[in-house]
User: Fold this.
Amino acid sequence: MPTRAPKVLVNEVSVTFESHGRSVVALDRISLQAHAGEFLCIVGPSGSGKSTLLRVLAGLLPQSAGDVRIEVDRPGTPLTAMVFQEHALLPWRTVRDNVTFGLENRGVRRAEREARAREMLAMVGLTRFAQHYPHQLSGGMKQRVGIARALANDPEVLLMDEPLAALDAQTRAIMQEELLRIWATLGKTVVYVTHSLEEALLLGDRIVLLTAHPGRVCQVYPVNLGRPRGLEVRGSPVYGALLEKIWSRLREEVVRAMAEDRGGEHA
Amino acid sequence: MRALGRWLGEQHWIAVGSPIVLFIAWEWASATDLLREAFFPRPSTIVIHLRHLAADGTLWDHAAMTLIRIGWAFALAAVLGVGIGLAMGLWRQLREGLDPVFAVIYPIPSILFLPLVSFLVPPGEIALVMTTAVTSFFLIAFTTTHGVRQIDRLVVEAAVHYGARGRRLFATVLLPGALPFIFTGLRLGLGFALIVVVAVEIVSTSRGLGALLWLSWQILKIEDMYATFFVIALLGAVLSYGLAALRTRLLPWVQDVTARSG
Assistant:
């Protein structure tokens, strides 16, 4: 079980965009916490600002109000490292040079960088592909590089923005188990955004359900499924009951969001 | 030779075969007087004249002159085109300021710049080179600007997230991201430098392949005209393929659309 020390503290965070002269509230006073070593999943209908929240945590987007705090355990390492949905690797760098990119930018010595890259590539099973370019890899392999790149920076918190959404079902299943293995090995705090409730139940310690328009925290569900967890957990009754419970709530939100979208079209 | 064999093996024989078929058809048409031989001499006759031109040094003299001019013009166009193109790609104000100016100047036939340039610098080699550089410059600047603009914003965002800022962001992301387009611009620019230099040589000088071609035509040495024609065409092909090969070598990460998938 994760320790209860809070690692990520999101307090009353709001994000407002200006769009066509109107201001749109993407996140409305979101408050949540992730404990040290916790795998926190964020689920919600499209338009709930899941990715926006992650971008605020990553420092890629300033919040309009509220504050974000990330507890620093190891000064000198970056607060966050993000795994992007479309992998966002640099096409002109080899797999290894993509993995060392963040370290290079921080001025880490070459020998150390390369040792770190070897270690991370071994962890994601891509040792043989260190000198390949991204376009030579499959979708699943590219995402492994994305994960290795994030982990190589040894961030305080690992952020993942629907990292497996673009993969086919089989590859996704394999990657989910890989992720669980890597997370168990490293014990990182993870904030994981997904639109898949099944994925959130398989991976997460807790699930934060967001509402759409504006994005608010609807409910937080603890996932009492035990660890280590594998795909077989899907057969357990606890899993089924939890899925049903969260899904009925999520369905309401999705239907409401869709109705609002349609209303928006007519306005 | 093995590389050539492999290249031919990949069904590029059509690319080699098409000019051969064309020459055989031409040879036959001229021999049977389907084309008037006085104006369309047989390729075999042209080759003989080409050898004469090469043997007495005339051809090399003119070709060297043309190559030197292309070299200077291309270097000028490349340095300014890539430099200004990158700046336009990076700074919106500069792009918005220069775009309309470029849009007006670019379609003007390059040869018309010769008198304009001659007002600014004394007529002669420098004016000739500058005129040759104009169109290439625009092509290279356009493609470079577009090269910077088309870089995936998510990739830039990821690079910033992983700590690349300022000069490092430029050197590790913006420049390499634009390079495939820069190379395309250079290739187009080099081709246009050849087109324009020949035109400029026709109107303004007695040395260079353009001048040789025009002189041959005016004194009705039709075979010499065609021989020069061939040399210019060959030069264009060599320069273009040379730059394409250089790109493949320097940018191994670029997915070649013609490469077999696998």
